[in-house]
Here is the input.
Amino acid sequence: MCRWIAYSGPPIYPETLLLTPENSLINQSLSARYSITPTNADGCGLGWYGERPEPGVFRDVLPAWNDQNLISIARQVKTPLFFAHVRAATFGPIQRSNCHPFAFDQWMFMHNGQIGGFESIRRELEGLVLTEFYNVRMGTTDSENIFQLLLGDGLRDDPIGAFRRTVGRVEAVMKAHDITEPLRMAAAATDGESIHAVRYASDDRAPTLYIGHSTLSGQPDETGPGVMVLSEPLDFDTGDWQEIGMSRFVTACAGAFDEEDFLPSK
Amino acid sequence: MCRWIAYSGPPIYPETLLLTPENSLINQSLSARYSITPTNADGCGLGWYGERPEPGVFRDVLPAWNDQNLISIARQVKTPLFFAHVRAATFGPIQRSNCHPFAFDQWMFMHNGQIGGFESIRRELEGLVLTEFYNVRMGTTDSENIFQLLLGDGLRDDPIGAFRRTVGRVEAVMKAHDITEPLRMAAAATDGESIHAVRYASDDRAPTLYIGHSTLSGQPDETGPGVMVLSEPLDFDTGDWQEIGMSRFVTACAGAFDEEDFLPSK
Amino acid sequence: MCRWIAYSGPPIYPETLLLTPENSLINQSLSARYSITPTNADGCGLGWYGERPEPGVFRDVLPAWNDQNLISIARQVKTPLFFAHVRAATFGPIQRSNCHPFAFDQWMFMHNGQIGGFESIRRELEGLVLTEFYNVRMGTTDSENIFQLLLGDGLRDDPIGAFRRTVGRVEAVMKAHDITEPLRMAAAATDGESIHAVRYASDDRAPTLYIGHSTLSGQPDETGPGVMVLSEPLDFDTGDWQEIGMSRFVTACAGAFDEEDFLPSK
Amino acid sequence: MCRWIAYSGPPIYPETLLLTPENSLINQSLSARYSITPTNADGCGLGWYGERPEPGVFRDVLPAWNDQNLISIARQVKTPLFFAHVRAATFGPIQRSNCHPFAFDQWMFMHNGQIGGFESIRRELEGLVLTEFYNVRMGTTDSENIFQLLLGDGLRDDPIGAFRRTVGRVEAVMKAHDITEPLRMAAAATDGESIHAVRYASDDRAPTLYIGHSTLSGQPDETGPGVMVLSEPLDFDTGDWQEIGMSRFVTACAGAFDEEDFLPSK
Here is the structure.
């Protein structure tokens, strides 16, 4: 189980969310409060948009609290949309290519959760990736596989439809192999304009997901109609945070967001 | 606060202590039980003796549980004496040169604890290092500084005397600068023959230190008159572990050990 | 194009071949003499056998000349059979899982060369890997793919037959995709007893391969009936080195070696 | 001997100089043309200014051509002033803290060259660092030591005077220790406004230094009155590049630059 945060709004330094808050993402990397695996020290990543359509991506293997490069970038770049992630590995070695976010053209993806029994169905799931997205793969995680499947299932044209098709496809393979471990995911994708996020599990224990509206203390000028989608609240004044229900899909953009029900395709 | 283990006895694979036990050193790196900082994920190291007088040393910046190189070495080399260490950083960046054990000629040193207010007296303490040991320094930690001071204070000829002189010297500098934070140390040095370890603090909260006699379960043939000095027990059958008192110095060799009182030189 | 060396014989410290000679493997990493890519700085690896049937494996992403861990291990472990490798990347990011040697059970494999057009046939070649070897894959290289194919083609029972079948299979896929770039390989596999090596190309420019008999200067006692298979000679006294011809397969063991012709299966 | 480039002018993506040109800094890391050590693969760094007075700094140990993080940042951030550096180590291990540029408050420093006999006078030179700058030191290089001495010698108020005093001070220590190896430097410092650079050696072989005025091909809109100070030209149309003479000091700002003679203080 990992921790992540997605932000969209007025340009801010990512440190505003990664370093400053009481329960900042870096503090969650050392000791997450809402997670079954409190230590998320198996690498970290930050992807952010600037003037180009493609994001910049920094990913590395050190625990986030140790990575002076991550910290310096988070203090230096101002960005209207970024994804940040701290990893707790389930499958695959600790290497940059297994760290989130994953990027392709102007899209990024990150994930908290797992495909139950991935080791036994990895070959089949990788075989479902379309040829044009196959060489996107530089690592070995189930998360990167989901991103590749989403790309092939139409992520760029129909995000919620792509998530429905990909999750349905994965569940079908799991069922065909009699896998009883659940699929669980709190995932987000973005094209640099909108954040698309889902909270879902094949059992009743989907990873937590929250929406936050920022008027983060001490950052009055830099915020405004910003919106965050994230694994857990950044402070403990619960007024600012709203839990996303299970089997729900969120689209956030320009400080606002919509929610709708999410069910995988059959 | 770090965690470490020193072993001397019949040749064993270090995995016997690093990987196998219930509270193995690798498990302590993720969640130490007797420590005020439970996560020790700021690098790791293994130094071991073979046929040469000098040890082999592996040190790296990943958390121990993620380092397949560490794990492979711990499974592959058989050694009659080794030091292993997982770091929780107090001062200095995460880089190999700040990981323990430190080595010079046939000597190794590792440490759990800290020199109170080290940042404000670092310049003076580094100035006390003898020229001949000055270039041993490749990192920035208080621990490496202690090792260099020990070398200059006669570690190779009179280990307990060197510890007394070095600790006394450090405490004098701390006092001259009105530092109120304590010096605390659970440290070990070896020449490949004997393990010299000390538990000491300038207040009453010295880091824990234990002695263990091995008949580790499942390793009947490989052990025998082995002895371990270590930060905390490797399992919870308390019969095998003996706590070292504060202000005590241990010399372990050939499966046996002696204890004596330890007071810094004035 | 990478550089590698395989040694079998009386136990030696790998430094004897990696560090000491005039054209040692570490010197080849900075400036290889017989290679079209002189700098081999994209990671390094060392796999060696001890008392267990499985090898110990150290792989890392730094240039070999910078890796103090590699250097320390090469000075500390004595071994009767080892593989060492310095990488010049053709496909895939610089990560430990893309460094050689690759290991599975008691087998190791390393490679210099490339599958022409690998990016366009990667999906098909990975699809040929048997399920039982699929999760061996932790990286993205054509070299690791060849190892997995060899395992499925019977490497453990019939090494030369497995090489014939795997190379034939890869060439068939290349042909089916009208790939004109050549397949080139100088590769070695071992079970800890014998070294099996091949020099082959689908054009007439196979990577160099040499056999050496050791009475390495300055190491009179440690050598004897040892045998080396390697990318290029370690010194420039040509008397000690014998070039392996193209389309030849070498089996080396206990200081001796056999050569035979090598042709891929149709 | 390292390679570096400093840029000041209209905001550009650093890739314009690091990745795109025929003899880009990344190509120089693999094979520099004007250097006695052609391979500069011992780490890399990029420091750049944005809206804050302090620079962002990315430094890492991989060869520049392998570092996808460096490449992504160089493509994503737009900056009016940056320092970029590829290292060929002379003293000190390969670790982030030994990579350039070094930063303190809003200042940055980078260096190509060496203090002759540094190992034998390191203790004395480090002892000359003022207490307030002593903890800036996180590595072990002569370059970082020069930066700390510059800070103490008034870099922030009188850059050329500080360089004169620091170089004079270092030469005096070298002379007192009868060191015959030369001091050589091509170094640059900046406060985010002006670039101050020096080409100097105590013998007659100072590292090369060039000034370039940019109308880099293919970047017509992004450049203009920009100025580069750098180790060697980025392409081989010599019209754009002007060699800086030995014992010369350059101040570049807002697309223009001044040159003056440089002599160390006695």
Observations:
- The mean pLDDT of chain A is 92.
- Chain A touches chain B at residues 30-31, 39, 41-42, 61-63, 66, 68, 89, 93-94 (CB under 8 Å).
- Residues 159-176 of chain A form the longest helix (18 residues).
